[in-house]
Amino acid sequence: MTPTAGTLSYWEAELGNVRVPCAPIDDVPEILAHSHTKQSDIILSYEESGGGTLRGVAQPFRFSGRRLSTELPPPYLGEDSKKLLQGLGIGEAEIRDPMMRGVVN
Question: What is the C-alpha end-to-end distance of the chain, expressed in Å?
């Protein structure tokens, strides 16, 4: 059966025929549902402060046979902005100004 033009299987076949290495790029739900992801034990679950559960994918890499630990959930948008800007040596007044103008959350 010949793949339909424009489909994933079509492009994988076309690029494979001319020896171009390729693979599809999955979105997060596809990654979470993939059998390899489940078997690799890289799905993370975090309890959100609002009471729900957030799922994500850990780094698939291992260093010296160990995976990097991920103990904290990712920050909410803007949660660490002030601390990061202070770490760059930006003063309090300069930080407040862009935040007030909506440039930085």
Answer: 52
